[in-house]
Here is the input.
Amino acid sequence: MRPIARFRWIAVALLAAGVVFPPVASAQARYYWKSLSGANVVPVIFESLSGNANPANPAMTVMPGASFSGTLGMAGYGRMFSLFDRAAFAALIVPMGRVSGEVNAFGVTGFQSASGFGDPMVELVVNVVGPRAQNTLADVARYEPGFSLDVLADLAFPIGQYSSSQALNLGQHRWYGRIGLPIVWQIGPWVPGQRTTVEALPAMWWFAANTDYLGKTLTTNVLFQLDAHVTRDLTASLWVSLDALWYLGGAATFDGVTGDKLNNFGIGATAGYQITENLGLTASYMKLVSSGSPNSLQMDRFMVSLIYGWHSLVEGARRLEENKK
Here is the structure.
């Protein structure tokens, strides 16, 4: 691979291999890889979900006897930058789509549906352990993550579609967010086509009270989430991962009655392909393992992402190389 082409491929590897976070789903493999400061990404994400909890609600509140399905699309923008010489990443994503299903919870029974925009969310990630920020192409050429630890903060804005007269909505009519510690551990050489990583994201979701949920107040306890991935390059352009997910906590209280907390494990797989140096495709499937109890969370998720990434410095270097021919 030519030097400039290699620089350009690495500079967009994070952007093309991962996705900006979906607010209702687990973090995807290779999302927290680092790239050249100033790199940009525009993701377009499609999700198909089904289960017994509102697929647009990150609290994953189980509604026993309910059966939901959702088709969600998400679009956004993210940018890599340097903060006190540490790698940092900021992103905005806006969900939209439709959810529908049979509701049988909190005294409400019957078919419900909702469509429109969900709650937009912003994310900030700052590296605290690992290599310094990649500010030049020389930094990119020397970069190896080794062991990397970040601090993550998400915040959702409660402006999405919401009706207080029904339990199923795209917006949640309350502030909520997440704090976490993304971890990437490099195994073996850091060479395209040979890279292997072990990744984890322990995180905590918090939720403010919804004071107008079916005319009453809904509160949700803290929800702990753990994502884990083992990823491996098959070629310089194709990679795969085995994924695991664990939810714990998040008991909901409605009108003074508290439901069960979550304690659910999920398994899945992801594949990513670099279509061009700027465009990446990722597909993943995740299934939560249910005990079969009506109070056990049941959820299946299939997600496809198209991510376009670019960097003005790398694009300029590529044009200079082409002009020399």
Summary: Residues 312-323 form the longest helix (12 residues). The first strand starts at residue 40 and ends at 51. The radius of gyration is 20 Å.
